[in-house]
């Protein structure tokens, strides 16, 4: 199926220069009498490389048909995230460099939606928010009652986000997976 940049939306996967690229961000632009174009930010699903590219609105791309499978995260090592298909018990390896952003929201044992292309895993589709436990954060200073004060907190997956001062070690928090920001206490 062929599509033009006018059909782009976040998450769509296209074949471009012999590789699979996922659209991370896009913006339609028209300047005076010049031809319209689409400014995009695309991610190579094989290498993890992110490019900012402008496409003419009339260009045509082959849209990659991506299947989504529910898989359980078994474990991770220095190079791969090891996954198991929950229906067939078949195991897959997904290079960590491809899912660097997503890995901070995934724990061993979690069930995730894995994007598959020609029966090979190419990425992970995260939900909008996840619940993670606070592993370490500083204690709030007594008397510091301003509601907008934030402090860093290390979560159980290893990522660090800013949380309100009332959050303590052991609390569970809801985190936005797109912006890596605190949403609420779980």
CATH topology of the largest domain: SH3 type barrels
Please give the domain count.
3
Strand order of the largest sheet: 1-6-2-3-4-5
- Helical residue percent band: under 10%
Strand content: over 45%
Q: Provide the residue-averaged pLDDT.
A: 89
Number of helices: 0
Total number of strands: 16
How many angstroms does the end-to-end distance come to?
A: 42 Å
Give the helix/strand class: mainly beta
CATH class of the largest domain equals Mainly Beta
Kindly provide the radius of gyration, computed on alpha-carbon positions and rounded to a whole number of angstroms. Answer: 20 Å
CATH architecture of the largest domain: Roll
- What letter string, H or E per element, gives the SSE order? EEEEEEEEEEEEEEEE
Give the CA-based shape.
flat
Q: List unreliable stretches of 5+ residues.
A: none
Main beta sheet, described? 6 strands, antiparallel
């Amino acid at each position: 199926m062929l599509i033009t940049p006018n059909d782009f939306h976040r998450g769509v996967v296209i074949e471009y220069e012999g590789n699979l690229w996922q659209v991370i961000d896009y913006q339609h632009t028209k300047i005076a009498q010049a031809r319209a174009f689409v400014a995009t930010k695309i991610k190579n699903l094989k290498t993890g490389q992110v490019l900012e590219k402008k496409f003419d609105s009339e260009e045509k791309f082959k849209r990659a048909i991506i299947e989504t499978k529910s898989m359980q995260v078994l474990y991770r090592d220095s190079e791969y995230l090891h996954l198991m298909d929950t229906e067939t018990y078949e195991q897959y390896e997904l290079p960590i460099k491809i899912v660097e952003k997503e890995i901070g929201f995934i724990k061993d044992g979690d069930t995730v939606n894995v994007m598959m292309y020609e029966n090979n895993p190419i990425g992970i589709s995260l939900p909008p928010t996840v619940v993670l436990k606070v592993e370490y954060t500083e204690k709030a200073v007594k008397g510091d009652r301003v509601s907008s004060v934030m402090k860093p907190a290390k979560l159980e997956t290893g990522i660090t986000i800013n949380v309100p001062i009332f959050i303590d070690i052991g609390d569970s928090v809801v985190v936005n997976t797109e912006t890596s920001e605190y949403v609420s206490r779980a």
